[in-house]
Amino acid sequence: MDSAHGLGRMLEEMARKQKKRQALLFDNREVSYRELDENANKIANGLQSLGITRGDRVAMMLPNIPDFVYSFFGIQKLGAVAVPFNTMYKGREIIHILNDCEAKAIITMTNFANLINEIQEDVPSLQHIILTGQRTMVFVSPDSTVNVQMVVGKDRFASGDEAFRVVGELLIDTLKSFGVEAWYKHRGGVRCGGRKIAIVLVSEVENLLVINCITFLGPLKTDDFFRVVWVAPEVKDKVMEPTTSVEEQTGTRPSLELFKDALLAALQSRLGISAEEGQLKRDELFGYEKTRALADKK
Amino acid sequence: MADTWRLIFNPEGDAADMVAYASALVEGRIAGKYMLSTEKLPDTLVVQGFRQKGILAGADVDINKDTAKKYDIKVANYPRSGRGGPKPVGTVNLAEVLKTSSRKFNAVETAPDDPAVLLYTSGTTGRPKGVTLTHRNFAQQCINVSKVLPLDESDTIVLVLPLFHVYGLSNGLISGVYFGTRMTLVPQYSPAKLLEAIEHSKATVLIAIPTMYMHLLQIARTRKASIPKSLRLCVSGGAPLSLTTLREFEEAFQTRIAEGYGLTETTSSVCLNKSGEAFKPGSIGPAAEGVEMRVFDDNDAEVPDGQEGEIVIRSDVVTPGYWNNPEETAEAIRDGWLHTGDLGYRDADGFFFITDRKKDLIIRGGFNISPREIEELLFTHPAIQDAAVIAVHDKRDREAVKACVVLHEGQSVTEREVLDFCSQNLADYKVPKYVEFRPSLPKSATGKILRKELREGYHDDRLLDKQSAGRKEQPHG
Questions:
Q1: Which residues of B touch A108 (CB under 8 A)?
Q2: Among A147, A233, A260, beta carbon nearest to B18
Q3: pLDDT in tens, B83-125
Q4: Domain assignment present for A245
Q5: Residue A11 phi, psi dihedral angles, 5° rounding
Q6: Which CATH homologous superfamily contains domain B115-357?
């Protein structure tokens, strides 16, 4: 390889020479050099449309999956700088790296979305979070978790950040009524003494926001879950970072009914919104059944 | 915008309800938007409890159904997202980029000295530093590999080492593409998965660390009949590989193992001790072609063969420096020579031997760990007055992190609390394995912590005893 041409050209030339030759084997899938090259091109085009140009730093927090390879060479084709780092790193370490290199974008697993969401505020240079792969895993248990969902028009909040903040504050108010002092960390983490007591994820689809919150009323015991689902050790502490619960903080676990009432009170006092109990409508029930069937399918 | 929301209260739900409700509400609203529905649907709040334990996971998560049944755990999948499923706000979906972007792109012309990659590595001074690696660095590394271990299109390499580490990235992925090889990706290491990947892809080249060779050998011993024999070449690096393991592995897998030595700052390997050819037990081998390697004294003068000094390297594989860090760069690269921080000597045949480490670095599984970084974290704990972090050896004789901690008067903290505090802030491999509470730390007259005294009784097995040069030695990658 002539070093004048760089790593992006290196792949380009190899793909021209070895079009059909297999480049990657993964999980019984095969990717040829041509496909690898085209996927790298797609990433390069995608990054370019986000405003990434030659010399910009793009962080990568990915295991050895094809997306690592596509992303790495996509970055090289743009003449940008790849900053791959250890997927075991935690918030503090990630903040240091992203700030030190002033990364404009990060490519990572959806599993880590919560982690990156929370630190984004501490990394002023970071403009884009690019996600791939499995969504965050959620564990639920009758003794421990309550799930709160909101589906609202986008115009309900000024921005995604605002939705995160307002919902975080609603949960803090709710927890406070049980005597728990929690605080809100940027985008999605409600914590109590460094441990998570609630998790918020705000998603968007068309003109709607879908907000999911899990709150821990009692301690979440994860042993059974990890017997059932194989989780890479490096992902494990992202799936389950240290948690606490209302019961662990106060000695008492509130009933679901009490939690609901406290949440409605917070909704009323903070946003002036009341809620009336209702049911799913006919169209909605159809969607509900359909999704349940899909979710139950193996 | 009505200020009354609809509340749906379902105390007896399960894991599948979490996606089903969201999807029902979204579909209902979107249908309304396109006037497929006559009903105007309000903003909605769902409060849901659970009647049984449950897991909600991506469709491709590995789940043990029998165990789930046994423990009464409901398993629900996110349905594979079709067009326009919900995505976290303010993020970009990579799959969508791959689906919608053009597959044509002309690679931007780069200059040879443009940075291509920054790799963060722990030094002795605390927080990780970004090692800048240029297109020229990688090109030179590929050329060096082509001289010592040429690969070609008929080879299949196993990429099991993490690609975010210099060894897997440079000698695995980038060399792999340079030679047009087939590469088999292993996203998560387990001995069985690695063996399966070798078998399934009929791999010819394995690049790994000593622990992996040891594990493979252990499995191979229990299932003699089916040891894959396709590997023509193996490379080991990151830590020393015992001569016994090397020989037994070669025998069982009918292959050859070459041991490499390199640093992040040298784009990975700079020398290779090749079993079966000129090979000296305990050596890291001669310098590769394209690499100048010498031994300097404290005044940067070269010492004669056989005399100990610091190993220094000059080559196009050497980094131009640390990102945004001219001081550290000037400290490490003097007069064009990268000072490795490894002490050693060269014998009369030009083979290098490592004897000690100049810096207080801890190396675990090929990852550098800075004692300073962990100490600085410990200093932020309100109960801790002073701390020193050193390397000790665990039961399996690998380097492990030990924290020696002095508490403020009147404070008490348990070992568990110190470890929890570390886990919340550090990657798992950096979290100390042992905590020792001490009344004070041994210090020099100038206040420098005397780590040697703390380490007393612990033998550093990375250090080669010159008199009994029988053990192998390979520092970091």
A1: none
A2: A147
A3: 456 778 888 989 889 989 999 999 999 999 999 999 998 765 6
A4: yes
A5: -65, -45
A6: ANL, N-terminal domain (3.40.50.12780)
